[in-house]
Amino acid sequence: MKVETLKVDGAALTIHLNGPDWDGAPAATIGNVSFKVPKAGRELLQKALVRIRDAGFDRVLGPMAGDTWHSYRFVSESDGSPAFLMEPANRAHEPLIFAAAGFEPVARYFSARMALEKCDPAPLPAPADFTVETWDGNEPEVLFQEVFALSCVAFADNAFYTPIPESVFLGMYRPVIPLLKRELIFFARRPDGTLAGFLFAIPNYAEGLETKTVILKTYASFVPGAGRHMVHACHAKARAMGYETVIHALIQDNNRSADRSRKEGGEVFRRYELLGLKWDV
């Protein structure tokens, strides 16, 4: 058994026995948490923990549906604004049930919003080692193959990273293809044409088709300065397209993107936590 779904009246979760390493040892994960009834959730979580210990694991992460490519993290603080597109969401009592079972935060994240009229007032100097271009809108499969290849390298050193097959990644993003706007997808390319970075942004369709908010979902780069230039280009293009607000989404507290968002004046409106539990370690 690698993945098992547990259900009772009022609660459900999945157990994943192929989770990432945590401090040098394999961890199980608990994902797809839905505790409509708190008492049922508490009892089901305890049942899951027994299953995980019996399987030989001494540590577990949650919520995480197996890896960080899929849904993970609880909302820990919020200003009460509606969830944006592809944002994790949970009932307020669900992280409390995990905490009562002994789970503690092992990683923290935030989302921040900014008025686009205040972003990047001055143009950046032209880079020498790369150029920034938007996606041409053709061959979306090729687009995501390039993004996947770069992501596997760029994120490999991140905490709790686990590789996945390209086919799984493409299956996750195919449903998003009709929602894409090519003007909000950027590549940084070296002079020889090889990919040095990418940025993926998407309108916040959770607000409707006429949304005035764009989500800067993720970006990565290998060349110093490429990330900053792609973010600047994204802000400028979104402004020109009539968007009014940008969301810097799901940023880990201690990485470079977090520093950049803070320096640019991003206002945090949501915080998230990934929780973990160790036994006899």
What key phrases describe this protein's structure?
globular, 281 residues, alpha+beta, Aminopeptidase, 33% strand, twelve-stranded mixed beta sheet, 14 strands, 2 domains, two-stranded antiparallel ribbon
Describe the protein's architecture and organization.
This protein is α+β, with helices and mostly antiparallel strands and 281 residues long. The protein folds into 2 domains: 3-110 and 272-278, Aminopeptidase, CATH 3.40.630; 115-271, Gcn5-related N-acetyltransferase (GNAT) (Aminopeptidase), CATH 3.40.630. The protein is 25% helix and 33% strand. Strands 1, 2, 5, 6, 7, 8, 9, 10, 11, 12, 13 and 14 form a 12-stranded mixed sheet that branches. It has a two-stranded antiparallel ribbon with strand order 3-4. α1 crosses α2 and α3 (140-154) packs across α4. It is globular and about 55 Å long. The mean pLDDT is 91.
CATH fold description of the largest domain = Aminopeptidase
Overall spatial form: globular
Beta-strand percentage? 25-35%
- Considering DSSP H and I runs of 4 or more, what fraction of the residues is helical? 25-40%
| Subunit arrangement of the protein | single chain
Task: Give the biggest beta sheet.
Answer: 12 strands, mixed
Please compute the radius of gyration using only Cα atoms: 20 Å
The CATH class designation of the largest domain is Alpha Beta
Measured distance between first and last alpha carbons: 24 Å
Overall pLDDT level: 91
How many β-strand runs?
Answer: 14
| Second rung of CATH, namely the architecture of the largest domain | 3-Layer(aba) Sandwich
Helix-strand string: EEEEEHEEHEEHHEEEHEHE
Poorly predicted runs of 5 or more residues: none
Count of spatially separate domains: 2
Number of helices: 6
| Class from helix and strand fractions | alpha+beta
State the CATH superfamily name of the largest domain: Gcn5-related N-acetyltransferase (GNAT)
